[in-house]
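Page 47, continued from p. 46.
Same chain as before, 407 aa.
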Amino acid sequence: MATAAAARANVKEFVFEWEGKDKNGKIVRGEIRSAGEAAVNAMLRRQGVLVTKVKKRRTAGGRAIKQKDIAIFTRQLATMMKAGVPLLQAFDITARGSPNPRMTRLLSEIRADVETGTSLSSAFRKHPMYFNALYCNLVEAGEAGGILEALLDRLAVYEEKTLAIKQKIKSALIYPVAVLVVAFVVLSIIMIFVIPAFKDVFSSFGADLPAPTLAVIAMSEFFVAYWYIIFGVLIGGSYFFFESWKRSEKMQKFMDRLLLKIPVFGDLIYKSVIARWTRTLSTMFAAGVPLVEALDSVGGASGNAVFAEATEKIQKDVATGSALTTSMQTTGVFPSMVLQMTSIGEESGSLDHMLGKAAEFYEDEVDEMVKGLSSLMEPFIIVILGILIGGIVVSMYLPIFKLGAVV
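Result:
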């Protein structure tokens, strides 16, 4: 029997969409996970359905599932659960309404697991790439306490807030990087194609060229001779840098520490990390998750290795009986405002509320900083580009001015 069960577990299943008529002649539709079309027909016949069409859902296509997709799904599920829509029907609606085929397949798999008796949190845990420990723990707490609708709503707010913070940080960082990349491409084109044309013209002057012009021509000759090495080193170096950042724990810790020390941007990243940390702990604590267990998810959710290490220390101190505020203070990474809010929350018994207020404050701070950086970076980048391109143009026209003075 064990062998037969193992064999059944190893059988690959697919999602089939079916259509048929029930005992009353009413047209019904649905989805079933099964190993083949014959098994689908057999299952539906046992349910009293006269099958008219069975089609295997295509498994190819669709973009990668992102946090935004999960946030939208969580909000939709929370809204429908609060409206009294049954869980399985809510999954059907969200799966069919998703524009991403991969998301539709994921929700169909989770729905099939729930339909067979698996708890919702256990079904989510089968997909750790999309549903982290924090997500699953909150859902499990909601199921255990009979308040799944309320916790799904709280989870949806959390997902939306953290996603908004990340998007603001990206918008602040991507703009200057994109402009600098475009500027590098433009300068490369000038160096490789435009400057050599000026060089041919200057060679017929028969006079000494100014030092700035000679310097620009020398850079152009270097670009023309070694452009493939320059682009290869930049592209290859960027690829290996980001891969090592993604895969190496030491590299992640180094970069996370470095990012917090960068002028202007470091403060923005620091405040965004504080906002995520306090928002996560507030959400977990409000859901009734014990503090020590809640801290398991908080460090990773902060998105910074410095705060992950600090959270581990806090968790060990709290487990031995220390107050949360005292443990946070010993790490030296939290601002005084957060420490004071946490202290008030512990004394008044409203820790989740005070942490939520701290999260809102720092989310607003991040929003204001992003707006300020956007207005500050634009003229700053324009000045840099003006100096670079203007310097090259002036260097190329100096010989012409010199020739005009001689004439």
